[in-house]
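Issue 218. Parser rejects a valid record. Input:
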Amino acid sequence: MKGNIIILSAPSGTGKTTILKRVMPELGPISFSISHTTRDPRVGEQNNVDYHFVSEEEFLQRKDQGDFIEWAKVHGNYYGTSVQAVLQLQEQGQDVVLDIDTQGARQVREKLPESSSIFIIPPSWEEQEKRLRGRGTDDEETIHLRLANAQKELCDIDLFDFVVVNDTLDDAAMMFKAIILTLRAKQRRLANGNPITLL
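Output the parser choked on:
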């Protein structure tokens, strides 16, 4: 049985990476699609673990060759998802989580309409700004840019099948896990056909 392709998007600083790290060890056959990016690694990030860090020249070459199922330029840096890596994991029965922005989500939904999508949002705009500033990784100009982009991304909420409000980590993680299990049950039903014929 093929795995599910799950698009995961959220405004910057909403906490999707924290939710993923909390839930994925509990979910069994699920993989995180490692994106390619031209941005510099942050403190603690590892190449080929958190991202595939590549030069802009290599990224654009891969893009022109059609290697990416989606790509976007965000905050001055390129990000892209390898189509071959995603489909290979899916064929192995793995659920594949694509951590991408709303631009990328549109591209994937157009190319893979059978994919599912989850949007994580903050409980309030004030909390969104507080979390971004609390990370301590960006200067004031970058924070303003991320907040402006977050406002645009929140306007795309209707693109997504599921919405998770990250009010508390425990509740958001529980909801995310429930969605993945629901998608697996649906996939199993589709793979088995009409259950009446199995009796």
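Fixed in the parser; the record now loads. The beta strands are 5-9, 30-32, 36-37, 52-53, 68-74, 77-82, 95-99, 116-121, 162-165.
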